[in-house]
Amino acid sequence: MRPLARIRYGIAASLAAMLVAGAAPAAPIVTKEGVLPFGTELGEDAAALPTELFATELAGGERSYQQKLGDMLFSSPALFGGVAKQAGMSCNTCHAQGAGNAALFVPGLSSRHGNFDTTGALFNPKTDNGLFDPVTVPSLRGAKNLAPYGHDGRFASLRDFIRNVVVNEFAGPEPSGGVLDALVAYVQDISFLPNPKMASDGKLATATSQAAHRGEVVFNRPFRHNASMSCATCHQPSNAFVDGQVHDIGSGGRFKTKTLVNADFNAPYFHDGRFDSYDQVVGYFDKHYDLGLSDGERADLVAYLDAVGDASTPATTDTVQTELDEIAVFVSVLDTAIHDHNAAIVAVAVDTVGGEWRELGEHYPEAKNTSVTAGLKQRGTARAAVREMVLTLRQVDMAAARGDFDAAAEAYADYREQVAPATSALAAAEPFSLFDPSVRRQHFAALARLAELAK
Fold it and tell me: Which of 46, 66, 294, 387 has the fewest CB atoms below 10 angstroms from its CB?
């Protein structure tokens, strides 16, 4: 589950309190979780999540403890410091399910939805460069094949890039080698989504549209004023459509070549997100490199990019079961951490999984939420079950903190016994929860009205 949900619920509570008191909210809004600028949007009202696939599982294997640990840490606010930690943010806030977050908007740090100034003062004043230079939040799908890292390619290794995000961009403490290894293992396992329109060598499949095939020819055709170059020179089809280099294409600096694989879901485009569509991107390159494309060739090239950037099942409906499946992955870290007497990892896992349970519970509106009226008893039972899961997890952490790992194992066994009845309670209340489309619409419409009144 996305930890960013904590932010929306905290803001909603602040809005409601201010309205009752008759006061006008100031920016930024202060919530019990932290401080974020009023007007922050993180896409938390989406009913579907980006599909996340792992290379290990696609190959028929099972993800390792290290990969699952990295997955859990990726959703842990404990990695960050200052405002980000207080707000319950994590790597997954911006890179939801390993994809980018086109809905992201932070006033003062974003010039548009989908970009973010990573060197602003809000999250780490020490690395504020004094410039407003937002960059798009990249998808991490296929990251293993996309070095160097960072929009300007300043990091040769994924490990160094991740450390920079944690320590410099979000003011987190210096992560241990084991934490970095786990995060790298997780990110490197995030796979591109399958695309039936494209063969394994990067060429279009036969069944793809004729317009796309014509665009493929244009993509590989030498530029009219420089026969040594084509679109494919940098976006090499056989190499995940990258060349591993940085280039100056007249957009304000030298930036790495971005992959075109699954790029239909990576908008906005360019390092700063200045373009919303392939048509705008093609128009820019046509003008900047004087390609002399006809209207038909432009349309064909757009069709080609759309085919190359496509994917099967790019999004997955968010349900109780998908959330429980993710929680099961995260909590499995405790199997090894308790056995190894690793109190530090136990603490992070309990904090992260406890947060996931609490957010899951928030999908079941409280009795005082007048936007939802049906299923009051079922919702109350579901929320009570969630509280019990969180409390039992807390017993695991408390035992591990005092070095009693036998007691930690016993509490963990109790937790696992409670999963089945909690699952039943959550499933019974699902029709009255935010997982139901109609309930979800009512809930977020009410939040929107509160926000409008609070302006």
Answer: 294
Residue 230 lies in a domain: yes
Kindly state whether residues 325 and 420 are assigned to the same domain. Answer: yes
CATH number of the CATH domain containing 275: 1.10.760.10
- DSSP for residue 381: H
Which residues, other chains included, contact 157 with Cβ-Cβ below 8 Å and sequence gap of 6+?
147, 149
Identify whether 431 is preceded by a cis peptide bond (ω within 30 of 0): no
pLDDT at 12: 38
Q: What is the DSSP string of 52-111?
A: --BHHHHTT----HHHHHHHHHHT-GGG--HHHHHTT--HHHHSGGGS--TT-B-TTT-S
- Give the rounded percent of residues in the chain with a pLDDT score beyond 70: 92
Q: What is the CATH number of the domain that holds 352?
A: 1.20.120
Does residue 340 register a pLDDT over 50?
Answer: yes
End-to-end CA distance of the chain: 29
Residue 317, SS3 per DSSP: strand
Q: Determine the Cα–Cα distance for residues 396 and 405; give it in Å rounded to an integer.
A: 8
**Domain around 407:** 318-455
